[in-house]
Structure formats: structure tokens, C-alpha cells
Write a structure and sequence with these properties.
Layout: E1 2-5, H1 10-21, E2 26-30, H2 35-38, E3 41-43, H3 49-63, E4 70-73, H4 89-96, H5 101-113, E5 118-123, H6 136-158, E6 163-170, H7 193-206, E7 211-216
Parallel strand pairs: 1-2, 1-4, 2-3, 4-5, 5-6, 6-7
Helix pairs in contact: 1-7, 3-5, 4-6
Length: 222
């Protein structure tokens, strides 16, 4: 089974669609999960620790003894502006990084103990490797996410674990984040989430090494 945390919109939603189209079973987790729209899965807001703590037991029931093929960490949201003006910085820190950690750790433990290969796929950002004056907290969370992915990749390699780690760093995408907002002048160069999803799925299919890191800057797959 493929589990997608943050699979109710944007890139996570596109990955879920494409995996299902090729016959894979996908469990979608997200704050706005709707069975009619998103298929198998359940609502999960990683800001709330009680929901995160209950999620692993619920997933275990759904798995019913089956293995995890892939756990995708795609949850998060963006905000632009000066640091002093950003509302609820703790919310962004929780949703984009720390709130999801217990569930990512649960998945890591489970996949590391499996007798077959699986993949932990982490969706970062080109902001994972640079600074931005108008996205300080977002950039900080993406740096943390990338640091975790690289460190887990080292662990998988050194300990010869059956789980592989894939870190993807997409640039700006045409996601629902921009609905109702003033579009940037270079919006035409923003990546297409469906094309990015196809690229990620194909890359993971071919991944042999314990750790893969792939940047997909703005304009790569428009």
C-alpha cells in the first residue's frame, strides 16, 4: 500500500491519482479528506497531536497485516510576507514539519522491519536549499525536512535497511495555493503538479540507491 500524507490537494493528490490509475492501492491522509473525492483514507490534521497519535493505529487496522510500499510526506502549506507579519508561525512549524514527525517515525520503523523494499518519499522544495526573505518560516521547515531526509538516507545506507529514501525538491507549482491570489509575473513558468508527480513516480520505480535527491526548479516541467 502507498500512504500519502497530504494527498488531498496539489502534488500529493496528483500522485494518488496516478498511482491508482496503474492499479496501486493508495491511502490518502489529509485535513480535507473526502471519500468521494479522495478515495480510501481519512481526515488527518497534523497540527493536532491527538489525531497524529491515533492515526498509526487506524492505519494498522486498514493495512491488516499488509506491508507499506511507500510512505509519501507531502503535507504542508506556504505563506509569503515579512516574518513579523506572519500569523500563527507555530501552526506552520507543526503542519510543515514537527506535527508530522511521529507518523513519519512510525512509518520508518515499520518499513525498516519489513522483509521487502519500500520507499520513504519526502516532498521538500527548492526552498530546502536556499534562503528567502519573504518565506522565512516556510524555508526553515523545508530545510529541516531535507535535513531529516538526508540523515535517514545515511542511516539506510550504513545499516543496509530495506527502506530507501527519496527527497524531491520541486520549485513553484500551479497548486490550489494560488487560487484567488494575485499571480506572480512568472506564473507561466510554474511547474505542472501532474507532470512532477509522473516524474517522481518514475524516478522511484528506478531507484536503486539508498538515498535519492532530485531538484525540480521552476520551469522544469511546466
Amino acid at each position: 500500500m502507498h500512504i500519502i500524507l497530504g494527498g488531498t490537494s496539489g502534488l500529493g493528490l496528483e500522485m494518488a491519482k496516478q498511482l491508482r490509475e496503474r492499479g496501486e492501492r493508495v491511502l490518502v491522509l489529509g485535513k480535507t479528506h473526502n471519500p468521494q473525492k479522495h478515495g480510501e483514507g481519512f481526515p488527518l490534521d497534523v497540527y493536532y497531536s491527538d489525531q497524529v497519535e491515533a492515526a498509526s493505529a487506524r492505519i494498522e487496522q486498514i493495512l491488516n497485516g499488509d506491508d507499506i510500499d511507500q510512505f509519501v510526506w507531502a503535507a504542508g502549506y506556504g505563506w509569503r510576507g515579512n516574518f513579523e507579519d506572519q500569523p500563527s508561525v507555530r501552526s506552520m512549524a507543526e503542519v510543515n514539519f514537527s506535527g508530522a514527525l511521529p507518523l513519519v517515525q512510525w512509518a520508518w520503523r515499520k518499513m525498516s522491519a519489513q522483509n521487502r523494499k519500500s520507499v520513504l518519499t519526502i516532498i521538500g522544495s527548492t526552498s530546502s536549499v536556499k534562503a528567502r526573505s519573504d518565506e522565512a518560516v516556510y524555508v526553515a521547515t523545508k530545510h529541516a525536512q531535507a535535513g531529516l531526509a538526508r540523515s535517514l538516507g545515511m542511516q539506510a545506507d550504513e545499516q543496509k535497511l530495506p527502506v530507501r529514501v527519496a527527497l524531491f525538491l520541486p520549485g513553484a507549482m500551479k497548486t490550489p495555493f494560488w487560487n484567488g491570489r494575485d499571480l506572480p509575473a512568472d506564473y507561466m513558468f510554474f511547474n505542472d503538479p501532474a507532470k512532477i508527480a509522473t516524474h517522481i513516480i518514475n524516478a522511484i520505480d528506478c531507484q536503486q540507491q539508498p538515498f535519492l535527491e532530485w531538484a525540480l526548479p521552476k520551469g522544469t516541467l511546466v
